[in-house]
Amino acid sequence: MNFLESRWIHSAALLGLAACGAHIIPPIVPAIPPADIATSIFLIGDAGGPGGGDNDPVLAELTKEATAAPRASVIVFLGDNIYPHGMPLPDAPDRSEAEKRIMREINVALKSGIKAYFVPGNHDWFRMGKEGWDAVRRSEIFIRERGNGLTAQSPRLGCPGPETVDVGTSIRLALLDTQWWLQRADFPKARDSVSTCIQYTEEHVVKRLAQVLADTGGRRVIVAGHNPMATKGEHGGYFSIKTHIFPLTAFKRWLYIPLPLLGSLYPTARREGLFGYAQDLNARANRHMRSMLLSAMAAHPPMLYAAGHDHNLQVMRGPVARYSVVSGVGMINHFGGVGWTPNTLFASHGPGFVRLDVDRRGRVRLSVQDYDPPSGFHERMGIWITDQQ
Asked: Is the CATH number of domain 39-237+302-383 3.60.21.10?
């Protein structure tokens, strides 16, 4: 099944929901005139697979828009920057392919001249494996060395963060490595002062994140990590019709063997947390991580929490943050199911990315850039996420 056929299955499900009149996307507000944009932030996740190869339309569009953006702009790659097992050892047989995949993302920064920050995801941690801490430190070195001063992995050293980056005069990024929380307790990770991490316990992370949000210097804060605080994608228990009919595609994307009824057992077990898969919202480790991080954000909520992980595009109100986005389909042939919650403002199976534009008065407009062949990219949503005064 090709990209168009697979997307049609997802689109049919979404159109069915829309036909019921249950979900209304807010009207698109006028774009900020280019001369009035002070800075832009591009949010894109899960871009590290084969996708469309060197000519993937998502990264091509990102490069085009970043090139036209103000020089103070930044790109944030929201994790799973190298599928499937992060950066292998230099002599590993899959090292060359891994380098090729991350270079496609690094080249966006090199071609556009815009700085890019790479937040690690679970696949960058050797797909949550025992070698994860080593893999994520290898990718950090590669990203730093190949980016000509424009690219960095953050947080550094496999530390949990948060690390802060100021963008322009009005935005501050607080970057987290959420996989640090979810890595198995018996696997190596930064957990003491020997790691050289400033924050190396859960309590340290929570305290520092709360401090960052309390002392903003007048800037609006975007907290970003790979794992979402809320999602109506597969990690949140929602599975598309395709997964129910063709459940084996969850393990091998080309296994289109119809197993209706029987196929619903797998998504039901995932939704109920029966597999104990730490990447899912219902898993104990995931619930604990989100509880701790949301508590750190509660007293001084950020403007936005940004994540990837689920292979779709979502914009939601809350939780805690004023808005949350999931931007986890940074390449073609990589999308998953997506549903709606009462807090959902927009949901699509992508592919595409989220863009924030800040005008010269400090107001912030959020838009969703969505790819739909053969017509190409379209702005599917555009809203102000700050008060208009």
From this structure: yes
